[in-house]
């Protein structure tokens, strides 16, 4: 098993150990820190995934964005080209369950240009404080980030911060990592 697979397996196991009340409180603290950021306040269009399983809860973040009058765009994975297409949703019924129980925008939702996204919330399993991350595999976000110019943040439980990760040439760091204990400004 390669190093990335080992880290993914270990981190998934660690996240599964989170008690429900700790998960809820930590997700709340992470979203609270996000809402306090100037990046959030200044963003009109926010790219975000629909959380699943042990990921930081993004459902509450999406509800808050709608309340604040922000536009939410959610990625659709194009498996053949390994690309992400972001599509606007204005309510949760515009989503459908796809592979691995993930929610994505329905096919009829119109895609937007990536450069319209002011703030992209980038998912991941493990993070270093310099902004490099280990995703779920597939490289979808690294390809998307290659020419993306907007702000990037990742949401993580404190236990997802690690000392080191295997980094490759195509890996793209995020600018900030928001945890239940701190906001890390990254300097990759």
TrEMBL record:
InterPro entries assigned to the protein according to its UniProt record, in alphabetical order: FTHF_cligase, FTHF_cligase-like_sf, NagB/RpiA_transferase-like
One matching Pfam family: 5-FTHF_cyc-lig
Requisite cofactors: Mg(2+)
Keyword terms, alphabetized: ATP-binding, Ligase, Magnesium, Metal-binding, Nucleotide-binding
Residue positions binding ATP: 4-8, 133-141
List of residues binding substrate: 50, 55
One GO process term, biological-process aspect: folic acid-containing compound biosynthetic process
Transmembrane parts of this sequence: none
EC numbers: 6.3.3.2
Broad enzyme group: ligase
An annotated Gene Ontology molecular function: 5-formyltetrahydrofolate cyclo-ligase activity
Catalytic activity: (6S)-5-formyl-5,6,7,8-tetrahydrofolate + ATP = (6R)-5,10-methenyltetrahydrofolate + ADP + phosphate
PANTHER family: 5-FORMYLTETRAHYDROFOLATE CYCLO-LIGASE, ATPASE INHIBITOR/5-FORMYLTETRAHYDROFOLATE CYCLO-LIGASE
Family membership noted in the UniProt record: Belongs to the 5-formyltetrahydrofolate cyclo-ligase family.
Protein name: 5-formyltetrahydrofolate cyclo-ligase
Organism: Falsibacillus albus
